[in-house]
Amino acid sequence: MRITKAKYLYQLTFLPRAFPVNCYLVEESESLTLVDAALPYSWKGILKAAEQIGKPIKRIVLTHAHGDHLGALDALKSQLPDVSVYISERDARLMRGDKSLDSTEPQEPIRGDIPNKLKTHANVLLQEGETVGSLLGISTPGHTPGSMSFIDQRTHSIIAGDAFQTRGGISVAGQIRPTFPFPAWGTWNKDLALKSAQKIANHKPSLLAVGHGTMLIQPEEAIIHAIRNAEKNLQLK
Question: Domain range spanning residue 208?
């Protein structure tokens, strides 16, 4: 596990060289918020990092309901039975293994690793504009129907889940990076993903933190470049 710190944000990276999977600890005055739960074995590293920081994990917030973001959730919940688990109301259905679509949604199959044996379910269902500690939730569908990103209102850093990736070069969800194509393969709807990427850009984040790849400081130019590439690719399809 590799730990990278940026102000109130700690990026925990598992398998950093082969298949980097990130989760994040967000430091509050007396506690920590865990954003995403990485891989099944990651729970020990997550708890060790919290111990090193010296504050308890009080909340687990999920950007979306794919297995590489929920992997350690059951193990963490067994160790931290009193923590609340947050996810968007829409992706709470995916947590339960329900891959049905609403009539108003693009009728494309939901992709990626949807857990079917998860014991833990969210007890707080989020809507856009709600806060969890210092984090403000914004709806960024595309990778999954209910994907959310979270803005730290103190620093204007954005934890974007898989709305972008930076491994293999920055790209919008659904856009293939040949050296790391996996987030693209798991993306549900590329058009909505592009709209969500533009929404993130409009917030002008000071830092972009994603599920796969390094954090980007002052990422505006890189985000715009990724959006333009996605626009070009979607026009060609």
Answer: 2-236
Predicted confidence (pLDDT) per residue in 152-194, tens digit: 999 999 999 999 999 999 999 999 999 999 999 999 999 999 9
Where b means 16+ CB within 10 Å and e means fewer, 66-78 reads bbbbbbbbbbbbe
Q: Are strands 164-165 and 171-172 parallel, antiparallel or unpaired?
A: antiparallel
Domain with residue 102: its CATH number is: 3.60.15.10
Taking residue 149's Cβ as centre, other Cβ atoms within 10 Å add up to 29
The size of the chain, in residues, is 237
**Alpha carbons 16 and 182: distance in angstroms, whole number:** 15
Of 158, 114, 139, nearest to 26 (Cα)? 158
pLDDT digits (tens, 9 = 90+) for 21-51: 999 999 999 999 999 999 999 999 999 999 9
- Band (pLDDT 50/70/90 cuts) for residue 237 is low
Q: What ranges in the chain are assigned the alpha helix state H?
A: 43-53, 67-70, 73-79, 89-95, 182-185, 190-202, 220-236
Question: What pTM was computed for the model?
Answer: 0.97
Q: How far apart are CA 140 and CA 111, in angstroms?
A: 16
The candidate with the shortest Cα–Cα distance to 165, out of 149, 151, 178, 180, is 180
Which residues, including other chains, have CB under 8 Å from residue 209's CB and lie 6 or more apart?
A: 6, 9, 11, 22, 24, 157, 158, 159, 160, 215
Structure tokens of 175? 């856009």
Q: How many domains does the chain have?
A: 1
Order the strands of the 124-126 sheet from edge to edge.
Answer: 2-6, 9-14, 21-27, 32-35, 57-61, 84-88, 124-126
